[in-house]
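Hi R.,

Here are the chain sequences for the assembly we discussed:
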Amino acid sequence: MSQTLYLALCGVCTVAVLIGINCMSKVKSAVFGNALSALAVLAAMVLTLVRYGVYSSAALYASLALGLVVGVVYARRTEMIAMPQVVALLNGLGGAASALVAGASVINGTHGVFENATSGIALAIGALTLTGSLIAAGKLARVIDSKPKVLPAHGLITVLLTVLTAAAIVLQVLGSGLWAVAVAVLALVGGVIFVMRVGGADMPITISLLNSLSGVAGGIAGMAVNEPLLVAVGGIVGASGLILTQDMCKAMNRSLGAILTGKTTVAAGTASGAGAMAAAAASSGAAQGKKVSFDDIAAKLRSAKKVIIVPGYGMALSQAQKEVADFAAKLEKNGAEVKFAIHPVAGRMPGHMSVLLAEVDIPYEKLCMMDDINPEFASCDIAVVVGANDVTNPAANTAEGTPIYGMPVLRVAEAPVTVICNFDTKPGYAGVPNPMYSANNALLLLGDAKVSVAKLSACIPG
Amino acid sequence: MSPLLLVAVFVVSAVLGYFIIRNVPALLHTPLMSGMNALSGITVLGAMAAVALSKGTLALVLACIGCFLAMVNVAGGFALTHKMLSMFAGHKEEKK
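And here is the predicted structure of the full complex:
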């Protein structure tokens, strides 16, 4: 095949991938977009096969076929609840593959400086992505404790590892290829060090970042083995991960640096937390009057014209989405308008809540993003919080000095009446007490969200 | 291809991707991320090239493991994304 034809076909595949991604911006065309991207990858594989003429390598076919079967079977068996950790795990495998490509390229040897340098960099980023993703997956699957773990002099260790890895890459380029082993080991350790200090609630950001890195690793590995298509798609994936990371940092009003260095939690009940509580309680107009009772809430639900449901990670944990869907259906049958308020960082991965609600057939149109729904809280009859805490905490507007200060939140506190179905009254992940819990117009239903939501459903006739 | 050209390809596609992906609404971020994750398995091309170019057993073994892992990433990623998207789309068909 001529070089020109090959490059032209590479261009076609890249454009197909871009069109596929473009289709993913709408629900209607997303399935097609995904299929188009998959087809483009398949075409690219055939193209590569033809380019190198490796038709007769049994080992190649065997490893590809095995990978295909394992991947598809694994995806089919995955339950929606396990989605975040599975995405993290698959991402790690992609990183590992890029690292192996780079490693094989180093072993083959006798390249120019550019190939050696890109091999080294791809090896480092790929290896970092592998262990980082594995730790992230472990934390999400709760195999590993999801609390941030900070070593003494953690920052220093990180800097030291980065410098050493860079030094090893330089030595591998200029000196012996054997230094690649050092690059790999240092980067593998680096991945662990890097993710261990990130806590569970910051995982959406970490996963997007790792996703971006695995794309970058692939792209740079593509430079090492002179594979323009790999370079192009790697660049696209890298950019997408970066956008998601950026978006979520904005949604949390925090810098990426603060999240990666674990500066996102305070101990519960600290002075600032208590201050937040007092400040918010004082400013809350609902502080006067009698505390609402369950019967008040039941009556409100029966007569409600507009209900806003606020799902959070607690809904995922208790697997309450089915009960939430039933609850919403009953409210609608009773003549109420039901909307779901989705915070950009609710859950453990970007868009987590929309996937869970889609699983139980909640129409996509009823899911409202924060900026669209926030003005509506004041005009709804009742807001129902299901397992969300930090993303609804009004203290974010008032409690200066706490980790969530300045984070845009769902303005649930503006709703005339609120039911909160949370497991306990402990502060959320950020460690800042939620003053809504003690407000007179809020009823707390503690315990399993599944049970609490079913109890609310039972209040509505029909 | 010359190194400079390869770097240019990387930058141009990253910029193109950036502008296309910015249009994806936040509610579809999970399928987007999962789809991007599948795409990052495109490194399977590199692994295939590495199989073709490998000199000696060690390089071949590493390249084959690379093929396997990247293929799990690609196949698993696309299958997972499809499953997720069918849930979004499936609802509409039932209702209408």
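Chain B touches chain A through 88 residues (CB under 8 Å). Chain B has one domain: 27-95.

Let me know if anything looks off.

Best,
T.
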